[in-house]
DNA sequence: CTTGACCTGTGTGTTACACACAGCTTTATG
DNA sequence: CATAAAGCTGTGTGTAACACACAGGTCAAG
């Protein structure tokens, strides 16, 4: 398989695959004629694994670790469980942070409805943002 | 002010400030004696603006745009409103995607409780992940 | 054989900083 | 005053996971 054939079969872009090859997650052979990457069925299997693991929140580094474990004939399952709980708390934190930001954005938008545009005076840049926490407005 | 003094007054790290300087968001003078960055009160004001805008979901590029507008004496407010609504849909999408991932993670963890560890056979890498969507288990 | 369409590998850009590191400053001490 | 330790500085580079640009190679049609 070439890069684009593999990409089509796995539902990812060719660039994604190239990225995985560059970082060593996939190790295709090379066509001696033109230097093109040549992928096997096993490579496809690995790629599908990557896609699924990513959808479960694993990072590419996590996945590389799992591959290494498995390549040594060792069960990656204990690591998988451990990494997963790490990632879960991480993701939870990120969601919370983004939600906090989103809430701030909503309340800003709400307040801005009643605030006019203002011209920078040199003392301030944009009253919509500046002193938003304190509730100031350019016409106060 | 030096970098670290400014950092302390704004509650950010010195590296953050150095980053803003490198990208042109802050433009301190230089101490002719030692080449150190020298910040003014106006720089502090700009930095505080950056911090606040970031907490409202603006990117550094957005903020640079706002600075440019204001520097030309034009009101950045219309742009600010427009960018904000862009960013809000972006953030909402991200939150949704992460929430989806999180839900998948939760259900994976739940299912894994009853699944034993398995040893890679060459046909598979980790049954916990592989075929998770189909509900397979290494002992099926 | 040539034209055009498509595909390839490699190099670089993206976001918002954190870290490493050699060298300069400042402070404490003798 | 000399010196050594502690701290601070600027610059260079690394991070995650790709996307994009681009010069050149490949393939089918004519």
Tags for this model:
homodimer, 140 residues, mainly alpha, two-stranded antiparallel sheet, 57% helix, elongated, disordered C terminus, DNA-binding
Write a structural description.
The structure is a homodimer of 140-residue chains. The first copy, chain A, is an all-alpha fold and 140 residues long. Helix content of chain A is 57%, strand content 3%. The first copy, chain A, contains 5 helices and 2 strands. The first copy, chain A, has a two-stranded antiparallel ribbon with strand order 1-2. In chain A, helix 1 packs across helix 2 (14-22). The longest helix of chain A has 36 residues, at 77-112. Chain A is elongated, with a radius of gyration of 25 Å. Mean pLDDT of chain A is 91; it is low at 135-140. Chains A and B meet through helix 3, helix 4 and helix 5 of A and helix 3, helix 4 and helix 5 of B. Chain A binds a DNA duplex (30 and 30 nucleotides) through residues 2-4, 13-16, 18-20, 22-23, 34-37, 54, 59-61.
Show the helix and strand layout.
Two copies of one chain form a homodimer.
Chain A: H1 3-10, H2 14-22, E1 29-30, E2 37-38, H3 41-55, H4 60-71, H5 77-112
Antiparallel strand pairs in A: 1-2
Chain A binds a DNA duplex (30 and 30 nucleotides) through helix 2.
